[in-house]
Amino acid sequence: MQFAIDYIRELRRTLEGLDPAAIGQAISWLREARDAGRMIFVCGNGGSASIASHMVVDTLKGASYGHESRFKIIGLADNAATLTAYANDVDYDCVFVEQLRNFAREGDVLLAVSGSGNSRNVLKAVEYANGAGCRTIGLTQAGGGALKDLAHLTLAVPSSHMGRLEDCFMVMTHIMTYAFMEKVAG
Predict the structure, then answer these.
(1) pTM (two decimals)
(2) Which residue ranges form the domains of the chain, and what is each CATH number?
(3) Percent of the chain's residues with pLDDT above 90
């Protein structure tokens, strides 16, 4: 029981360190992309890929179904055949960037999730998206990693504990999607 008490206490402290203004900016960028018919791409590895996929579901169904304005969003880790083809035939570092080369256009949004902030395939995707004129949002830890400085907007979690990072990533993506589900963001 003490472990649960301590974990919850640390999670509360970590959640209090999130930046509501940065999350609000991300919501604005998502709204602008939706309203302009732009694409939103999300990517990550492992647990971060799961969080990205969860955000896609919440956005495609929850924030679009029954709404006049609908989102166009793709999870770059969600097509296993494409992902493994690039990983096997080319290199795992290119699994996201090569998909962006097919689809990304100026004004689109890339939301990249990386606990370490140093996942090479995520960084390559952000670099490409920046160069293509996309807006980039990075969800990562506050303490380090290249993603923090590479993304146009960073939603930084003040912890390096992977569990609390992922807990906060999920909370932030829920805030971003529920702003539209509950019609707060329009």
Answers:
(1) 0.96
(2) 20-181 (3.40.50.10490)
(3) 94
